[in-house]
Amino acid sequence: MAHSPLITQLIDSFRCLPGVGAKSAQRMAYHLLERNRNGARRLSHALRQASEEVGHCQTCRILTEYEQCDICQSPKRDRQTLCIVETPSDVYAIEQSGSYHGSYFVLMGHLSPLDGIGPQELHLDTLKQRVEHEDISEIILATNATVEGEATAHYLMEMLKPFTNKITRIAHGVPLGGELEYIDSSTLGHAFNGRQELK
Amino acid sequence: MINNRINLENKSAVVLHYYNYRNSSLIVNFFVSDFGKISAIAKGVKGKNTKKNQFALLQPFQKLSVSLGGKQELLILKNIESTSINWKLSGKSLYCAYYLNELLLRLLPSHSDCQQIFSLYDNILTLLSRDAPELSDTDSRQQQAINYEIPLRIFELKLLEFLGYGLNLSHEIETGLLIEADREYYYVNDAGPCNIKPLDSNYCPVSGCTLIDLKNLQLRDRKTLHESKQLLKWSLVAHLGDKPLKSREMFKQLYCL
Q: Where are the domains of chain B?
Protein backbone atom coordinates (compact mmCIF):
# COMPACT_ATOMS: atom_id res chain seq x y z
CA MET A 1 0.00 0.00 0.00
CA ALA A 2 1.34 3.41 -0.93
CA HIS A 3 1.43 6.23 1.61
CA SER A 4 -0.83 9.24 1.09
CA PRO A 5 0.88 12.24 -0.59
CA LEU A 6 1.30 14.20 2.67
CA ILE A 7 2.79 11.24 4.55
CA THR A 8 5.13 10.49 1.63
CA GLN A 9 6.21 14.13 1.69
CA LEU A 10 6.90 13.93 5.44
CA ILE A 11 8.90 10.69 5.09
CA ASP A 12 10.95 12.14 2.22
CA SER A 13 11.63 15.29 4.28
CA PHE A 14 13.01 13.27 7.21
CA ARG A 15 15.44 11.57 4.83
CA CYS A 16 17.45 14.80 4.48
CA LEU A 17 18.81 14.14 7.99
CA PRO A 18 22.18 12.35 8.30
CA GLY A 19 21.88 8.64 9.09
CA VAL A 20 18.14 8.50 8.34
CA GLY A 21 17.13 6.04 5.65
CA ALA A 22 13.69 5.10 4.29
CA LYS A 23 12.80 2.80 7.21
CA SER A 24 13.82 5.21 10.00
CA ALA A 25 12.08 8.10 8.24
CA GLN A 26 8.86 6.06 8.07
CA ARG A 27 9.09 5.18 11.79
CA MET A 28 9.62 8.84 12.73
CA ALA A 29 6.71 10.02 10.58
CA TYR A 30 4.28 7.41 11.98
CA HIS A 31 5.42 8.01 15.55
CA LEU A 32 4.68 11.75 15.28
CA LEU A 33 1.33 11.23 13.54
CA GLU A 34 0.08 8.39 15.74
CA ARG A 35 1.41 9.29 19.17
CA ASN A 36 2.77 12.79 19.40
CA ARG A 37 0.93 15.44 17.36
CA ASN A 38 1.97 18.17 19.84
CA GLY A 39 5.60 17.15 19.46
CA ALA A 40 5.16 17.33 15.67
CA ARG A 41 3.76 20.89 15.93
CA ARG A 42 6.63 21.96 18.20
CA LEU A 43 9.17 20.38 15.82
CA SER A 44 7.72 22.09 12.75
CA HIS A 45 7.59 25.45 14.55
CA ALA A 46 11.19 25.11 15.81
CA LEU A 47 12.42 24.02 12.37
CA ARG A 48 10.71 26.94 10.62
CA GLN A 49 11.96 29.50 13.13
CA ALA A 50 15.54 28.18 13.19
CA SER A 51 15.86 27.85 9.44
CA GLU A 52 14.58 31.39 8.90
CA GLU A 53 16.33 33.21 11.73
CA VAL A 54 19.65 31.45 12.45
CA GLY A 55 22.61 32.99 10.65
CA HIS A 56 26.29 33.50 11.36
CA CYS A 57 27.84 35.54 14.20
CA GLN A 58 29.42 38.63 12.63
CA THR A 59 32.60 38.20 14.66
CA CYS A 60 33.32 34.46 14.81
CA ARG A 61 30.91 33.07 12.15
CA ILE A 62 29.41 30.49 14.54
CA LEU A 63 25.70 29.72 14.01
CA THR A 64 23.39 32.06 15.98
CA GLU A 65 20.22 34.11 15.53
CA TYR A 66 21.86 37.20 17.08
CA GLU A 67 24.38 39.56 15.49
CA GLN A 68 26.96 38.33 17.98
CA CYS A 69 27.01 34.94 19.71
CA ASP A 70 27.14 34.42 23.50
CA ILE A 71 30.89 33.73 23.45
CA CYS A 72 31.68 36.94 21.55
CA GLN A 73 29.39 39.02 23.83
CA SER A 74 30.69 37.56 27.10
CA PRO A 75 32.91 40.00 29.09
CA LYS A 76 34.58 37.02 30.81
CA ARG A 77 36.28 35.73 27.66
CA ASP A 78 39.92 36.51 26.89
CA ARG A 79 39.87 38.65 23.71
CA GLN A 80 43.62 38.39 23.18
CA THR A 81 43.54 34.68 22.37
CA LEU A 82 41.88 33.49 19.17
CA CYS A 83 41.19 29.83 18.39
CA ILE A 84 40.50 28.94 14.73
CA VAL A 85 38.36 25.82 14.13
CA GLU A 86 36.75 24.15 11.11
CA THR A 87 33.10 23.76 12.19
CA PRO A 88 30.64 25.04 14.86
CA SER A 89 30.58 21.55 16.42
CA ASP A 90 34.35 21.89 17.06
CA VAL A 91 33.58 25.00 19.17
CA TYR A 92 31.12 23.01 21.31
CA ALA A 93 33.64 20.15 21.69
CA ILE A 94 36.35 22.60 22.89
CA GLU A 95 33.87 24.36 25.20
CA GLN A 96 33.00 21.00 26.77
CA SER A 97 36.67 20.40 27.58
CA GLY A 98 36.55 23.53 29.77
CA SER A 99 40.22 24.29 29.14
CA TYR A 100 39.90 27.28 26.81
CA HIS A 101 38.47 30.69 27.68
CA GLY A 102 39.40 32.82 24.68
CA SER A 103 37.50 33.76 21.50
CA TYR A 104 36.91 31.75 18.31
CA PHE A 105 36.76 31.97 14.54
CA VAL A 106 34.88 29.26 12.62
CA LEU A 107 36.12 28.59 9.06
CA MET A 108 33.02 26.52 8.13
CA GLY A 109 35.22 23.98 6.33
CA HIS A 110 38.86 23.43 5.40
CA LEU A 111 41.10 24.14 2.42
CA SER A 112 40.99 21.23 0.01
CA PRO A 113 43.24 21.74 -3.02
CA LEU A 114 41.83 18.73 -4.87
CA ASP A 115 38.18 19.70 -4.30
CA GLY A 116 38.73 23.32 -5.33
CA ILE A 117 37.95 24.75 -1.87
CA GLY A 118 40.28 27.71 -1.62
CA PRO A 119 40.75 30.78 0.60
CA GLN A 120 37.79 32.63 -0.98
CA GLU A 121 35.34 29.85 -0.11
CA LEU A 122 36.40 29.96 3.56
CA HIS A 123 36.02 33.78 3.92
CA LEU A 124 39.62 34.11 5.04
CA ASP A 125 39.48 37.86 4.24
CA THR A 126 37.07 38.32 7.19
CA LEU A 127 39.53 36.51 9.46
CA LYS A 128 42.47 38.59 8.20
CA GLN A 129 40.57 41.85 8.81
CA ARG A 130 39.66 40.73 12.33
CA VAL A 131 43.26 39.82 13.23
CA GLU A 132 44.52 43.11 11.70
CA HIS A 133 42.14 45.28 13.73
CA GLU A 134 42.12 43.46 17.08
CA ASP A 135 44.95 43.21 19.59
CA ILE A 136 45.58 39.44 19.54
CA SER A 137 48.56 37.97 21.40
CA GLU A 138 48.07 34.30 20.48
CA ILE A 139 46.36 32.47 17.64
CA ILE A 140 45.64 28.76 18.19
CA LEU A 141 45.14 26.70 15.02
CA ALA A 142 42.71 23.93 16.01
CA THR A 143 41.97 22.47 12.57
CA ASN A 144 41.50 18.69 12.32
CA ALA A 145 44.44 16.28 12.41
CA THR A 146 43.89 15.30 8.78
CA VAL A 147 46.15 16.13 5.83
CA GLU A 148 43.64 18.81 4.74
CA GLY A 149 43.59 20.22 8.28
CA GLU A 150 47.40 20.47 8.16
CA ALA A 151 47.31 22.21 4.76
CA THR A 152 44.75 24.70 6.16
CA ALA A 153 46.87 25.32 9.29
CA HIS A 154 49.95 25.99 7.16
CA TYR A 155 48.07 28.45 4.93
CA LEU A 156 46.66 30.28 7.97
CA MET A 157 50.09 30.41 9.58
CA GLU A 158 51.60 32.04 6.46
CA MET A 159 48.67 34.47 6.18
CA LEU A 160 48.53 35.55 9.85
CA LYS A 161 52.28 35.59 10.65
CA PRO A 162 52.68 39.35 10.04
CA PHE A 163 49.89 40.30 12.48
CA THR A 164 50.75 38.42 15.66
CA ASN A 165 53.77 37.24 17.64
CA LYS A 166 52.56 33.81 18.61
CA ILE A 167 50.81 31.19 16.45
CA THR A 168 50.34 27.73 17.97
CA ARG A 169 48.91 24.43 16.73
CA ILE A 170 47.02 22.04 19.03
CA ALA A 171 49.01 18.92 20.01
CA HIS A 172 48.37 15.52 18.37
CA GLY A 173 49.05 12.28 20.12
CA VAL A 174 47.93 9.42 22.30
CA PRO A 175 44.25 9.74 23.38
CA LEU A 176 43.27 9.37 27.04
CA GLY A 177 42.94 5.65 27.80
CA GLY A 178 44.86 4.77 24.62
CA GLU A 179 47.24 1.81 24.58
CA LEU A 180 50.41 2.31 22.57
CA GLU A 181 50.33 -1.05 20.78
CA TYR A 182 46.96 -0.23 19.18
CA ILE A 183 47.82 3.28 18.04
CA ASP A 184 48.69 3.89 14.38
CA SER A 185 52.28 4.79 13.54
CA SER A 186 51.62 8.38 12.38
CA THR A 187 49.76 9.31 15.60
CA LEU A 188 52.56 7.75 17.64
CA GLY A 189 55.12 9.67 15.53
CA HIS A 190 53.29 12.95 16.31
CA ALA A 191 53.19 12.02 20.00
CA PHE A 192 56.96 11.48 20.06
CA ASN A 193 57.73 14.66 18.12
CA GLY A 194 55.57 16.69 20.50
CA ARG A 195 56.88 15.12 23.73
CA GLN A 196 57.24 17.37 26.78
CA GLU A 197 59.79 17.55 29.53
CA LEU A 198 58.53 16.41 32.94
CA LYS A 199 59.14 18.99 35.64
CA MET B 1 29.80 -15.56 -18.88
CA ILE B 2 32.77 -13.25 -18.31
CA ASN B 3 33.88 -13.16 -14.68
CA ASN B 4 34.80 -9.53 -14.11
CA ARG B 5 35.40 -9.85 -10.38
CA ILE B 6 38.50 -7.98 -9.18
CA ASN B 7 40.41 -9.27 -6.19
CA LEU B 8 43.52 -7.44 -5.08
CA GLU B 9 45.24 -8.95 -2.03
CA ASN B 10 47.94 -7.16 0.00
CA LYS B 11 48.97 -4.75 -2.74
CA SER B 12 51.30 -1.79 -2.26
CA ALA B 13 49.23 1.38 -2.54
CA VAL B 14 48.84 5.01 -1.53
CA VAL B 15 45.72 7.14 -1.09
CA LEU B 16 45.41 9.91 -3.69
CA HIS B 17 42.19 11.48 -2.39
CA TYR B 18 39.01 10.62 -0.51
CA TYR B 19 35.43 11.90 -0.36
CA ASN B 20 32.89 11.52 2.42
CA TYR B 21 30.25 8.93 1.63
CA ARG B 22 27.12 8.72 3.79
CA ASN B 23 27.65 9.15 7.55
CA SER B 24 30.72 7.21 8.40
CA SER B 25 32.14 5.88 5.12
CA LEU B 26 34.56 7.19 2.53
CA ILE B 27 35.08 6.75 -1.20
CA VAL B 28 38.85 6.48 -1.58
CA ASN B 29 40.94 6.89 -4.75
CA PHE B 30 43.87 4.50 -4.38
CA PHE B 31 47.02 4.33 -6.49
CA VAL B 32 47.88 0.61 -6.47
CA SER B 33 51.43 -0.12 -7.68
CA ASP B 34 50.60 -2.89 -10.17
CA PHE B 35 47.00 -1.90 -10.97
CA GLY B 36 46.96 1.89 -11.36
CA LYS B 37 44.14 4.12 -10.14
CA ILE B 38 41.11 2.49 -8.51
CA SER B 39 38.28 3.71 -6.27
CA ALA B 40 36.95 1.78 -3.27
CA ILE B 41 34.41 2.27 -0.50
CA ALA B 42 35.87 2.20 3.01
CA LYS B 43 32.86 1.38 5.17
CA GLY B 44 32.39 2.68 8.70
CA VAL B 45 35.76 4.36 9.11
CA LYS B 46 34.60 7.82 10.28
CA GLY B 47 32.99 9.11 13.44
CA LYS B 48 32.56 7.86 16.98
CA ASN B 49 32.87 4.16 17.85
CA THR B 50 34.19 3.19 14.42
CA LYS B 51 37.42 1.78 13.05
CA LYS B 52 39.38 4.90 13.94
CA ASN B 53 42.76 3.44 13.05
CA GLN B 54 41.57 2.92 9.51
CA PHE B 55 40.64 6.60 9.10
CA ALA B 56 44.16 7.58 10.18
CA LEU B 57 45.59 5.11 7.65
CA LEU B 58 43.37 6.48 4.89
CA GLN B 59 45.02 9.90 5.03
CA PRO B 60 47.06 10.58 1.87
CA PHE B 61 50.88 10.34 1.78
CA GLN B 62 51.37 7.02 3.58
CA LYS B 63 52.62 3.75 2.09
CA LEU B 64 50.01 1.06 2.60
CA SER B 65 49.24 -2.55 1.92
CA VAL B 66 45.59 -2.89 0.85
CA SER B 67 43.18 -5.67 -0.02
CA LEU B 68 40.29 -4.69 -2.29
CA GLY B 69 37.57 -6.70 -3.93
CA GLY B 70 34.35 -6.39 -5.90
CA LYS B 71 32.71 -6.68 -9.27
CA GLN B 72 32.15 -3.09 -10.27
CA GLU B 73 34.35 -0.06 -10.92
CA LEU B 74 33.90 0.84 -7.24
CA LEU B 75 35.49 -1.86 -5.07
CA ILE B 76 35.18 -2.53 -1.33
CA LEU B 77 38.14 -2.01 1.00
CA LYS B 78 38.67 -5.28 2.88
CA ASN B 79 41.91 -4.68 4.73
CA ILE B 80 44.48 -1.93 5.13
CA GLU B 81 47.85 -1.81 6.87
CA SER B 82 50.68 0.65 7.07
CA THR B 83 53.91 -0.74 5.58
CA SER B 84 56.57 1.84 6.40
CA ILE B 85 57.27 5.10 8.15
CA ASN B 86 55.14 7.96 6.80
CA TRP B 87 56.41 10.76 4.63
CA LYS B 88 56.57 13.78 6.92
CA LEU B 89 55.25 16.52 4.69
CA SER B 90 54.45 19.98 5.92
CA GLY B 91 54.16 23.48 4.54
CA LYS B 92 55.21 23.92 0.92
CA SER B 93 56.28 20.31 0.46
CA LEU B 94 52.72 19.27 1.40
CA TYR B 95 51.27 21.50 -1.34
CA CYS B 96 53.83 20.05 -3.83
CA ALA B 97 52.70 16.54 -2.85
CA TYR B 98 49.06 17.58 -3.42
CA TYR B 99 50.09 18.64 -6.93
CA LEU B 100 51.53 15.16 -7.62
CA ASN B 101 48.32 13.57 -6.35
CA GLU B 102 46.16 15.78 -8.56
CA LEU B 103 48.29 14.96 -11.63
CA LEU B 104 47.94 11.23 -10.88
CA LEU B 105 44.19 11.54 -10.24
CA ARG B 106 43.72 13.23 -13.61
CA LEU B 107 46.14 11.21 -15.75
CA LEU B 108 46.83 7.79 -14.25
CA PRO B 109 45.20 4.85 -16.07
CA SER B 110 43.38 1.98 -14.38
CA HIS B 111 44.02 -1.77 -14.87
CA SER B 112 47.68 -1.30 -15.81
CA ASP B 113 51.01 -1.99 -14.16
CA CYS B 114 52.27 1.33 -12.78
CA GLN B 115 55.18 0.10 -10.63
CA GLN B 116 57.63 2.43 -12.39
CA ILE B 117 55.56 5.54 -11.53
CA PHE B 118 54.81 4.18 -8.05
CA SER B 119 58.51 3.90 -7.18
CA LEU B 120 59.15 7.36 -8.68
CA TYR B 121 56.30 8.78 -6.54
CA ASP B 122 57.86 7.08 -3.51
CA ASN B 123 61.32 8.57 -4.28
CA ILE B 124 59.97 12.05 -4.90
CA LEU B 125 57.87 12.18 -1.74
CA THR B 126 60.94 11.00 0.19
CA LEU B 127 62.92 13.88 -1.37
CA LEU B 128 60.14 16.39 -0.56
CA SER B 129 59.86 15.20 3.03
CA ARG B 130 63.62 15.77 3.53
CA ASP B 131 63.24 19.43 2.61
CA ALA B 132 60.55 20.06 5.21
CA PRO B 133 62.35 22.57 7.50
CA GLU B 134 61.68 26.14 6.39
CA LEU B 135 64.76 28.30 5.81
CA SER B 136 64.91 31.97 6.66
CA ASP B 137 67.50 33.94 4.65
CA THR B 138 66.87 34.83 0.99
CA ASP B 139 69.62 32.66 -0.60
CA SER B 140 68.54 29.58 1.32
CA ARG B 141 64.91 30.24 0.37
CA GLN B 142 65.88 30.37 -3.32
CA GLN B 143 67.87 27.16 -2.94
CA GLN B 144 64.89 25.58 -1.21
CA ALA B 145 62.58 26.61 -4.10
CA ILE B 146 65.02 24.88 -6.50
CA ASN B 147 65.02 21.80 -4.25
CA TYR B 148 61.23 21.66 -4.49
CA GLU B 149 61.09 22.26 -8.22
CA ILE B 150 63.62 19.69 -9.48
CA PRO B 151 61.74 16.60 -8.19
CA LEU B 152 58.44 17.97 -9.57
CA ARG B 153 59.93 18.49 -13.06
CA ILE B 154 61.44 14.97 -13.07
CA PHE B 155 58.07 13.53 -12.02
CA GLU B 156 56.21 15.41 -14.79
CA LEU B 157 58.74 14.27 -17.42
CA LYS B 158 58.64 10.62 -16.32
CA LEU B 159 54.85 10.64 -16.04
CA LEU B 160 54.52 11.88 -19.62
CA GLU B 161 56.97 9.17 -20.74
CA PHE B 162 55.00 6.51 -18.85
CA LEU B 163 51.72 7.64 -20.44
CA GLY B 164 53.27 7.30 -23.89
CA TYR B 165 53.61 11.06 -24.49
CA GLY B 166 57.36 11.27 -23.76
CA LEU B 167 59.17 14.38 -24.98
CA ASN B 168 61.68 14.21 -27.81
CA LEU B 169 64.74 15.78 -26.21
CA SER B 170 67.53 14.44 -28.44
CA HIS B 171 67.10 15.54 -32.06
CA GLU B 172 65.36 18.04 -34.36
CA ILE B 173 62.20 16.75 -36.02
CA GLU B 174 62.89 18.03 -39.56
CA THR B 175 66.61 17.34 -40.02
CA GLY B 176 67.22 14.62 -37.42
CA LEU B 177 70.29 16.57 -36.21
CA LEU B 178 71.30 16.32 -32.58
CA ILE B 179 70.21 19.16 -30.27
CA GLU B 180 72.93 21.79 -29.77
CA ALA B 181 73.24 23.53 -26.41
CA ASP B 182 73.73 27.07 -27.77
CA ARG B 183 70.76 27.13 -30.18
CA GLU B 184 67.14 28.15 -29.64
CA TYR B 185 64.31 25.76 -30.61
CA TYR B 186 60.51 25.71 -30.90
CA TYR B 187 58.95 22.60 -29.36
CA VAL B 188 55.96 21.40 -31.45
CA ASN B 189 53.35 19.38 -29.56
CA ASP B 190 53.39 15.59 -30.16
CA ALA B 191 56.42 15.99 -32.45
CA GLY B 192 59.53 17.60 -31.00
CA PRO B 193 61.91 20.55 -31.31
CA CYS B 194 62.51 22.38 -34.59
CA ASN B 195 64.67 25.42 -35.26
CA ILE B 196 62.30 27.18 -37.67
CA LYS B 197 59.39 29.01 -36.05
CA PRO B 198 56.17 27.10 -36.91
CA LEU B 199 53.36 29.00 -38.67
CA ASP B 200 50.66 28.10 -36.14
CA SER B 201 50.90 29.14 -32.50
CA ASN B 202 50.99 25.62 -31.03
CA TYR B 203 54.63 25.57 -29.94
CA CYS B 204 56.76 26.34 -26.89
CA PRO B 205 60.09 28.20 -27.26
CA VAL B 206 62.95 26.44 -25.46
CA SER B 207 66.77 26.59 -25.54
CA GLY B 208 68.94 23.65 -26.62
CA CYS B 209 70.71 23.77 -23.25
CA THR B 210 67.39 23.13 -21.40
CA LEU B 211 66.50 20.21 -23.71
CA ILE B 212 69.90 18.58 -23.06
CA ASP B 213 69.69 19.17 -19.30
CA LEU B 214 66.16 17.70 -19.21
CA LYS B 215 67.34 14.64 -21.14
CA ASN B 216 70.16 14.12 -18.62
CA LEU B 217 67.84 14.97 -15.67
CA GLN B 218 70.32 17.64 -14.53
CA LEU B 219 68.38 20.84 -13.98
CA ARG B 220 71.18 23.07 -12.78
CA ASP B 221 70.23 26.74 -12.90
CA ARG B 222 67.18 29.03 -12.66
CA LYS B 223 66.91 29.56 -16.45
CA THR B 224 66.90 25.81 -17.21
CA LEU B 225 64.39 25.22 -14.43
CA HIS B 226 62.11 28.03 -15.63
CA GLU B 227 62.17 26.84 -19.26
CA SER B 228 61.64 23.20 -18.23
CA LYS B 229 58.64 24.27 -16.15
CA GLN B 230 57.12 26.15 -19.09
CA LEU B 231 57.73 23.27 -21.52
CA LEU B 232 56.35 20.56 -19.20
CA LYS B 233 53.37 22.69 -18.12
CA TRP B 234 52.52 23.32 -21.78
CA SER B 235 52.93 19.61 -22.65
CA LEU B 236 50.74 18.53 -19.73
CA VAL B 237 47.94 20.98 -20.61
CA ALA B 238 47.43 19.10 -23.89
CA HIS B 239 46.55 15.96 -21.88
CA LEU B 240 44.80 17.59 -18.92
CA GLY B 241 42.28 19.47 -21.05
CA ASP B 242 40.75 22.86 -20.27
CA LYS B 243 40.16 22.22 -16.57
CA PRO B 244 43.04 23.87 -14.65
CA LEU B 245 44.91 22.11 -11.83
CA LYS B 246 43.45 23.36 -8.56
CA SER B 247 46.49 22.53 -6.44
CA ARG B 248 48.68 24.66 -8.71
CA GLU B 249 46.33 27.65 -8.30
CA MET B 250 46.37 27.27 -4.51
CA PHE B 251 50.15 27.02 -4.47
CA LYS B 252 50.32 30.31 -6.40
CA GLN B 253 47.96 31.97 -3.90
CA LEU B 254 50.10 30.69 -1.03
CA TYR B 255 53.20 32.31 -2.50
CA CYS B 256 51.38 35.59 -3.22
CA LEU B 257 50.47 36.10 0.45
A: 6-82, 92-255
Q: Which numeric CATH code is attached to B6-82?
A: 2.40.50.140
pLDDT, tens digit, 9 for 90 and up, residues B77-92: 999 988 877 788 888 8
* Complex ipTM: 0.80
A113 to B95: CB separation less than 8 angstroms, yes or no: yes
In angstroms, the Cα distances linking A99 to A91, A167, A175, A191, A197 are 12, 18, 16, 20, 21
Gap between the Cα atoms of B64 and B30, Å rounded: 10
Contact B90 A150 (CB under 8 A): yes
Q: Write out the residue range of the structural domain in which residue A89 sits.
A: 77-179+185-191
Minimum Cα–Cα distance from B19: chain A residue: A115
- A99-152 residue pLDDT tens: 999 999 999 999 988 888 888 788 888 899 999 999 999 999 999 999 999 999
Of A116, A111, A178, nearest to A141 by C-alpha is A111
